[in-house]
Amino acid sequence: MLNIVEVDRLATQAASKALKRVGIVRVFSAPTVTWDGDEALSVTIVLRRNGGAVTGREANTALVEISQELERRGDSRFPITTITTEEEQESHDDSQP
């Protein structure tokens, strides 16, 4: 199982290739569990401002690339991935206590 720093690095590389047209600000992850209690990863991809809309194909490619890269490195945790924008992330951060 990879540590979070390594997961973030791999997820950033994979997502950056798939989403280069819209641009990525950062990718961060945290351990979590699936609905049935299996270990998983919460992966958040933050897109740059005014980068445009992400197509379904781009999003799917990013998700598959992240999953495959984790699997290649021997990490079997399922990546539960969220794609958000800087604006949405800032709004979420501002609403946290």
Keywords:
97 residues; alpha+beta; 3 strands
At a glance:
The chain is α+β, with helices and mostly antiparallel strands and 97 residues long.
Task: Describe the 3D structure.
With 97 residues, this protein is of the alpha+beta class. It has a single domain, classed as GMP Synthetase, Chain A, domain 3. Helices cover 43% and strands 28% of the residues. It has 3 helices and 3 strands, in the order H-E-E-H-E-H. A 3-stranded mixed β-sheet has the order 1-2-3. It is globular. The model has no long low-confidence stretch (mean pLDDT 92).
DSSP strand tally: 3
CATH class bucket:
Alpha Beta
Any idea how many domains?
Answer: 1
Backbone shape: globular
Question: SSE string, helix = H, strand = E?
Answer: HEEHEH
Multimeric state of these chains? single chain
Q: Helices and strands: which structural class? A: alpha+beta
Say what the CATH topology is.
GMP Synthetase, Chain A, domain 3
Main sheet characteristics:
3 strands, mixed
In helices, the fraction of residues equals 40-55%
CATH superfamily: ANL, C-terminal domain
Relative strand content: 25-35%
Task: Please tell me how large the radius of gyration is.
Answer: 13 Å
Q: Give the helix tally.
A: 3
Strands of the widest sheet, in order across it, are: 1-2-3
- CA-CA gap between termini: 32 Å
**CATH 2nd-level architecture:** 2-Layer Sandwich
Task: Write down the overall mean pLDDT.
Answer: 92
Question: Ranges with pLDDT <50 over ≥5 residues?
Answer: none
